[in-house]
Design goal:
By secondary structure, this protein is an alpha/beta fold. It has 9 helices and 10 strands. The longest helix has 12 residues. One fe (ii) ion (FE2) binds next to loops.
Amino acid sequence: VRIALIGDSHGFVPALEAALAAARSSAPDLLVFCGDLVTVPFSPDPPGETIELLRAEDVRAIYGNHDIALRAWGTPEWDQVMAMRMERGYQPGPWVSLMPEGQARVAPEDLAWLRALPGELAFDDGRVYVCHAIPGNPFLSLDGSDRRESVDPAVREAALRLPKPAAAELILCGHSHLPQAFCRRSPLEHGQTVVRTGAAIGWGQPPGSAVRQGGYAIVTRRGGDWEIDFRLTPWRPRDPAWTWRRSLEATGFVFPRSP
Ligand SMILES: [Fe+2]
Ligand SMILES: [Fe+2]
């Protein structure tokens, strides 16, 4: 089995296109997108273009924290999303007030597609499990590497004891944008390989750069082992000057001064 793992394209269509093309050239049996297809509340490129790419027949996608926030605004799911987000231990920024405007940029049929996305996948008779961050909460990184997330390690371990992740021998995820792989013992006492793919937008990219390197992973089972190949592919943002902050300010939004 060969799996291509892509995630965290965050609304940059050229980054997703580059990762998909590079991953497909390895002829994977499965192409998995592990979430954060948009950035909330506003994406650099139209969300509909990202969604069209991910609707390809050979892609299996789940939602990330950004995607579930965008789809949940104005629905009963929103309270649950905020409760998961609050497990990080600090309040979300005032940009939350722009969520209705962000969601209005998504066409109704694309929003329906987003709302049908699952939060996890299991395949290969349960040997492979996919989530965005930790099982059951797309806001918390699996290895605790994100310093802004002050979550108790016991919370992560409890998530990994849920039946599907506990049974898996391979756990695939994204969310923290650096690629990483490590081995652990499952609560059911078998070995587990955890692979976090490098973000399709890359990491540590100098702001404003016209050419960037995006990450993805090819994971192949050989004998009883999983071979992991972290790869990079170049991509060019349509607007190299786009920043999240600038996209908010373009709406007239004023960031509150820090106290
Ligand atoms: Fe992300
Ligand atoms: Fe994320």
